[in-house]
Design a protein that fits this description.
GO terms for molecular function: hydrolase activity. InterPro entries: AB_hydrolase_fold. This is Alpha/beta hydrolase. By secondary structure, this protein is α/β, with parallel strands linked by helices. It has a single domain (about 1-195), classed as Alpha/Beta hydrolase fold, catalytic domain (Rossmann fold), CATH 3.40.50.1820. It is about 35% helix and about 20% strand. The protein is built from 6 helices and 8 strands. Helix 1 packs across helix 6 (about 180-195) and helix 2 crosses helix 3 (about 95-105).
């Protein structure tokens, strides 16, 4: 693991697992005001699933900015990873899932992700993080994974729209936090990301 600073004008630090890899997944953490960080267990599960040959860039958001700055952090992390490697995937959990969806919708072309997987995405948090509407603007393969017992966020609109668009939808027997489900997250998300990178 290597610690890197993500350029872009905000104080963003990231951990790059397997820095020699020529393919990387950028992982967006959950809500920073509720303890979300690059060390989140769900992000680590996805990073472990990428071993041994795909890197994982897990970053911390800069100062809280109502979703605008956090989305900029993800865009900057994706741009940095795109410049460093041959192919980039994108993953996000909870708040980070909304950030990842909006980021994938805003960035296209060579700088955009080759694949996107989101875990427990809220339908929308702020005007800057409308995850459901973002799906219409994403042109890479998308996987939406939800816990069937998740009553923390309103994920149903995201699942419904993803299904309408023909994206992969996975329902796991879990709540929002996927407690004790690290292996199941890796087994569900890892192969999807690998197959499209």
């Amino acid at each position: 693991m290597t610690t890197v600073g993500i350029p872009g004008g905000r104080d963003v630090t990231a951990s790059l697992d397997r820095p020699a890899a020529d393919t990387v997944v950028v992982a967006c953490p959950p809500h920073p005001q509720y303890g979300g960080s690059r060390s989140d267990s769900r992000l680590n599960a996805v990073s472990d699933a990428m071993a041994p040959d795909i890197g994982c860039l897990r970053f911390d958001y800069g100062p809280w900015d109502e979703g605008r700055g956090e989305r900029a952090d993800a865009e900057n992390a994706l741009a940095w990873a795109s410049e460093q490697t041959d192919a980039v995937g994108l993953f996000g959990y909870s708040f980070g899932a909304a950030v990842a969806l909006r980021t994938a919708a805003e960035i296209d072309g060579d700088a955009g992700p080759a694949v996107l997987s989101v875990l427990a995405p809220p339908a929308g948090l702020t005007e800057h993080l409308d995850a459901t509407a973002a799906l219409d603007a994403i042109d890479c393969p998308v996987q939406v994974v939800v816990g069937e017992r998740d009553d923390t966020v309103d994920w149903k609109p995201v699942v419904d729209r993803a299904a309408e668009l023909g994206h992969a939808v996975e329902r796991l027997p879990a709540d929002h936090h996927f407690v004790g489900q690290r292996g199941r997250i890796a087994e569900t998300v890892g192969p999807f990301l690998r197959d499209h990178l």
